[in-house]
């Protein structure tokens, strides 16, 4: 039987059957699904690597700022032109608000923030910076802004597991790092005062002497150990407890608050029996972080004829 060429041509041009199309679509779907499964972790890892660099550079920039200005800024924008992560989301910033004054870093010995990880803890953290990661969500929860009381920041173990994603990238700096950047030495607080004039018999003291803190953090607290025999010749302001020697360190509530301390003469004159000297007294000063800054200075004056 002779074959019909036209029928053969039609057969060759025929389409896929529904079964064949179904099989092709299934194969394409599997390929696409596999591609997405491979592609998504790859993208997460790319963003993770970028965010690690961004956060590290942001921390370094903040440490550099602190070294130059001896304080922390209240926003990242004042330090970094575009504080964004790899997904163009704003970086988050939390900080200890005790370090906003330019003399604060060198005059404190602790910070209120801490970092806790799966197998480590970092205390005395001055600030924390983080990227929300590829998912754009904060997990575990972290709050930005200033902190004045003890607060722990939990750093997650990095996870891309569906339903348990924790991909925040967290960076921080300790108070020790800031002190190194600033170049802090030991305690920098001092008591400044001009030289005390000599007293004269039959006259009241002639000059008001002002004692001023140099360094430290306000509020300041004063105490004076002064010889009782001459306590009626002077008035201290604020009204400092003129106590016996050794009592400033041991007497409860011996210190009073004042930005400066003044020793002003009153109308009482020096008697001839009070001629001589030196009459020693000790001025004590504490600041708001007394465990770091508690200093004293001895002063002496004489009474001449």
What keyword list fits this structure?
single chain, 305 residues, alpha+beta, Immunoglobulin-like, six-stranded mixed β-sheet
In short:
With 305 residues, the protein is an alpha+beta fold. Helix content is 22%, strand content 28%.
Description:
By secondary structure, the chain is an alpha+beta fold. The chain has two domains: 18-182, no CATH class; 190-304, Immunoglobulin-like (Sandwich). Helices cover 22% and strands 28% of the residues. The chain has helices at residues 5-12, 18-69, 175-182, and strands at 92-96, 113-116, 121-131, 145-147, 151-154, 169-174, 190-192, 199-200, 209-214, 221-225, 234-237, 242-243, 256-257, 261-265, 276-286, 294-304. The strands form three sheets. Strands 1, 2, 3, 4, 5 and 6 form a six-stranded mixed sheet that branches. A hairpin with a 7-residue loop joins strand 15 (276-286) and strand 16 (294-304). Helix 2 (18-69) crosses helix 3. The longest helix has 52 residues, at 18-69. The radius of gyration is 36 Å and the shape is rod-shaped.
